[in-house]
């Protein structure tokens, strides 16, 4: 951990951490002050529950709490490759089989296109926020500014949990694919601890070592990480190009004859599964603080990378169908066994190499995103503020990177892939939905400027958009094949969005780059994400509820009081600075 001086100017010893790094706020200085804070929980909840931050606060005062600034070294080229590296992991090699064989058939190409368009809508929403608020917090910052502290805290707490699960899962998958390259069973590369429960008995030191190596790269330099990511992503693309070329030499167009065996429902069900092959770009948005020219580089990087990924996914899925009939595709290893079926057994090594390269860049993007999320949460004091520290030499968030890597490594070392796979969550979709909603609030509501009439109409139309989107998703989830439900819910969504467009005055225009066709595209993004959430299994909702309950307990007993004190201190400092400026101005006028 990084050392330095404490608030009183004294040097820290040892690892550089003290109580003041974890709980420096006034509420935690003594038992009496903490009990007093708990007694004021109700009033503090009223103060902070819907409290919204401001752009200038996030860009200056909050960011200034890190003591040092991150270096602005990234450009649009770096962001494109980070986008490709963050999204294109092993998903294409795993999810395509289940989607094509069990749901969409050859129409898996259409399913990839639909889910890609849904992901692109979310990318557009993220891009506008990232251009306007280029800070490390990503969606946490966007939600904090538009929907308030509490919503941002719950969302960020859940997505950090999912980052840990995803990081540990990818690290263990890295070991599995490495074993494939050497013709070994994955567990032969792990140690078996018979005294541990079965799901935690295969210890994976390779997963931990890979995570630690990625951590070192992420701590040393963001630009260096970008160069490594670019090289690894280029190798990955060359592997995918190989799959396309070799696969097309064995193509049989007749495999597309029964294009959509399960109809539109099968296509949409496959789309909901394949959407998870597109997630990861939200972590790239946390790099906004390190981009040289956010107004130019972020739109080109984020949107450009997503368009490339959509094209590649559609081409790869089409190639798979041309190689092998959809009903013969293996669910677990579709590309590997498809090449074996046409006599190219050696191709499985190329596929495994591509997956390894992809998972390496996903791990890198994962830890970069995790650390920057945690850094900005630490700046707000909703997490221990020592996590907000930026290393003076490397200008990277070393503390947050090391802490999150240790958590990832411990989980990945002990926990089996089966357990981790069952923890796949709806959190990502929830965050995407909230960011789309926050963008609508940002465009149509400005405190102190928007009239009461426009505010009330905005609330009404947003409630209708939310309600109709949820109703459509629920109707789909319960398996109704009729059209009556959609004939009610879809027109309500359309009328509500149209009403928002025609009857509520837009309160804020983006300064440099903005989402086109507002409110239509953000509203469609919200509806599509909620629709896909309907396909998430019930166990994920239970896990989401349990974890959220734990977050609530931490919020009530720790985060609420820490963030309240930090906000109060910032307000007092700002007021004092304003008063000083006024006094200096008055003295100057008297002098003249």
From TrEMBL:
Membrane topology classification: Multi-pass membrane protein
Location of the Cationic amino acid transporter C-terminal domain: 513-563
Taxonomic path: Eukaryota, Viridiplantae, Streptophyta, Embryophyta, Tracheophyta
Native species: Gossypium lobatum
GO molecular function: L-glutamate transmembrane transporter activity; L-lysine transmembrane transporter activity
Sequence intervals crossing the membrane: 74-95, 107-129, 150-171, 205-221, 228-247, 267-288, 300-326, 346-369, 398-417, 423-446, 458-478, 484-504, 516-535, 541-560
Record's subcellular location: Membrane
Family statement: Belongs to the amino acid-polyamine-organocation (APC) superfamily. Cationic amino acid transporter (CAT) (TC 2.A.3.3) family.
Name this protein carries in UniProt: Cationic amino acid transporter C-terminal domain-containing protein
Principal localisation: membrane
A cellular component annotation (GO) from this entry: plasma membrane
Record keywords: Amino-acid transport, Membrane, Transmembrane, Transmembrane helix, Transport
Top-level taxon of origin: Eukaryota
